[in-house]
Design brief:
This protein is α+β, with helices and mostly antiparallel strands and about 575 residues long. The protein has a domain of about 180 residues. About 30% of the residues lie in helices and about 15% in strands. The strands form three sheets. A seven-stranded antiparallel β-sheet has the order 1-16-15-14-2-13-12. It has a seven-stranded antiparallel β-sheet with strand order 9-6-5-4-10-3-11. Strand 15 and strand 16 form a beta hairpin. Helix 5 packs antiparallel against helix 14 and helix 14 crosses helix 16. It is globular and about 120 Å long. About 20% of the residues have low confidence.
């Protein structure tokens, strides 16, 4: 049934002939179809509706008015979709959502960092790209809390021996004081670093933009030392960096003479660093190869009273080569009876023997191969070698490769043997691929022979983030580069004074180094105070040094999020 109604278009292909605004009148007419009170309209508009009703067509009612309940019902039917970004209706009456009392009030950027990098197993994944912008982070939906959700009322966070690749500090107060340092402030920061000047800032700086002392200390905290330095190559991280280095100029890859020169200079720098470490003038340093990373720590750090070195990840071939060189080492994550730690050879033998008891041997070929001993009558004088035990031992050692359990701990004088082993180890340098012939990267907080002074990159970003009442300014400071433990602590001390004790931070970790937070202390230190005094000349702030002497408590994980609220620190790993 089709019927032409003047001024009405049921298919909405043509607009009405006349469009008029509905105005509020003291008395509202009644819709002929529904009987509800409607806003007044002109007779020219009501005429086509009555004609359409008579034809049996369904009409859309006028918006109801007059009462509060009717207005609320109409608002729920037709609301402005652009009123809020999340496109959900705002409750009419009621307080704002209440956050968890055990945790400080949530900020728009805090929820972003709660659960990225949750997994601490062998398979390392990234929840966010390292180049994620602040705008994208603020729009990321809330996720579950990490299993290491440890709120704390203390002003310090635990020591983290992993290397960070990016820090993203956010605050409700501006970071403009960190922008555009003057030439004099930059030079003063370099001098303070080279002279190991200890800067003491007030707890609360009223105007950070006018504080020259703060800006110089910020410049000082961004400095680190690197060898080798090739401006066109990114030399950290080295594990999994083939894609970034591929296609770059590498004249040494096919030149053995140039490779020998590079390795000779690298050996001199490596030896220089170790000598500084042995004399407690260098607190720690990293050796980053294309397959594994080594952390050397001076006596007194991480609860050890002697020099320690940690390698991760390792393989059976590397461990066998170290054993052949006479290097004594242990696997800290492999324990016997849950308490006593075993050497690598003893542990593997124990596991193989336990499996051997549960699985009896029935290899007839093996029995026949030694039948000639019985014919000679000397079968009791010669011990038959257990081949299956050896095979099981090798199998268990191979299963640990590239896993957290493969971390190797070297202590005391064996670290010097490890130094010579690494210098002469041919597998330390790649023989093919983009990193072929390129020596490992040395990272240190202090200067050493052949090192190049480098700066962490810092930039500030200001964005507007959505809140319940609209938008608010959110300020952020992004730090990128190889961020070592001392830099992380120095930066947080500065921001505590500059941001009046309130800020949050997302920390992005180079995952192969998270395992360095494993506790390696064998026994309690009796002369801790003496060791700390001997390390006082290592070039670090005394508060930073005090943190590095603490026992690591993070285990296989690392810091992922940190929030400072009224000078009280809360952190997640």
């Amino acid at each position: 049934m089709s019927m032409t109604v003047p001024g009405y278009s049921p298919s909405f292909k043509k607009p009405a002939e006349t469009l008029r605004l509905r105005r509020k009148r003291p008395r509202n007419p009644v819709d002929p179809g529904t009987g509800a009170a409607v806003s007044p309209a002109d007779p020219a508009e009501l005429g086509p509706r009555r004609a359409a009703l008579a034809a049996g067509l369904r009409l859309r009612p006028f918006p109801a008015t007059g009462s509060r309940s009717g207005g609320a019902a109409a608002a729920s039917l037709r609301r402005n979709p652009f009123a809020r970004l999340d496109n959900t209706p705002r409750p009419a009456v009621g307080p704002e959502p209440v956050t968890d009392p055990a945790w400080p009030p949530a900020s728009p950027l805090r929820d972003t960092f709660l659960d990225f990098h949750q997994e601490n197993n062998v398979t390392w994944k990234k929840g966010f790209s390292e180049r994620t912008t602040v705008k994208q982070l603020s729009m990321t939906p809330h996720q579950q809390h990490s299993k290491y959700d440890i709120p704390s009322s203390e002003s310090e966070f635990p020591v983290d021996w992993s290397i960070k690749t990016r820090l993203l500090f956010t605050s409700s107060q501006s970071f403009t004081w960190a922008d555009h340092l003057k030439a004099q402030e930059e030079a003063q920061g370099f001098v303070q670093h080279c002279r190991a000047t200890e800067v003491h800032l007030p707890e609360n700086i009223q105007d950070p933009r006018l504080s020259t002392e703060l800006r110089c200390a910020f410049q000082q905290s961004l400095i680190y030392w690197l060898h080798p330095f090739l401006p066109w190559l990114q030399l950290f991280p080295r594990i999994g960096a083939d894609r970034k280095i591929a296609g770059k100029t590498s004249p040494w890859s096919n030149d053995e003479g140039l490779q020998q020169i590079l390795m000779s200079e690298w050996s001199i720098s490596f030896t220089s660093l170790y000598n500084l470490l042995k004399t407690k003038l260098c607190p720690y340093f990293y050796v980053c190869t294309y397959q594994f990373t080594v952390l050397f720590r001076a006596a007194g750090l991480a609860g050890n009273d002697i020099i320690t070195a940690i390698l991760s990840p390792t393989t059976r071939g590397l461990r066998e080569a170290m054993k052949n060189e006479g290097i004594e080492f242990s696997l800290p994550l492999i324990k016997e009876n849950g308490q006593r730690k075993q050497k690598v050879s003893e542990t593997s033998l124990h596991v193989a023997e336990s499996e051997c008891k549960t699985e009896p041997e029935d290899d007839e070929d093996e029995e026949e191969s030694f039948s000639w001993l019985e014919e000679m009558g000397v079968q009791h004088k010669i011990k038959k070698p257990d081949i299956s035990l050896k095979l099981r031992k090798e199998k268990n050692e191979v299963q640990m490769d590239h896993r957290p359990e493969s971390i190797v701990l070297v202590k005391g004088i064996n670290t010097f043997t490890l130094l010579n082993f690494l210098i002469n180890c041919k597998s330390l340098v790649a023989t093919s691929g983009p990193q072929a012939g390129l020596p490992p990267t040395l990272l240190s907080p202090i200067a050493f022979r052949g090192a190049t002074m480098q700066m962490l990159k810092a930039r500030t970003v200001n964005v507007k983030t959505p809140v319940y009442t609209g938008y608010k300014d959110q300020f952020s400071l992004e730090i990128t580069g190889p961020i070592m433990p001392h830099s992380l602590h120095s930066l947080t001390m500065l921001l505590k004074s500059a941001q009046k004790g309130s800020f949050s931070a997302g920390l992005y970790t180079h995952e192969p180094t998270s395992i360095f937070n494993t506790c390696t202390q064998m026994e309690k230190i009796s002369n801790k105070d003496v060791l700390e005094k001997e390390l006082a000349n290592c070039g670090l702030h005394l508060k930073t040094l005090s943190q590095l002497t603490q026992l690591p408590i993070l285990g296989k994980s690392s810091l992922r999020f940190m929030e400072m609220d009224n000078y009280a620190c809360n952190w997640k790993s």
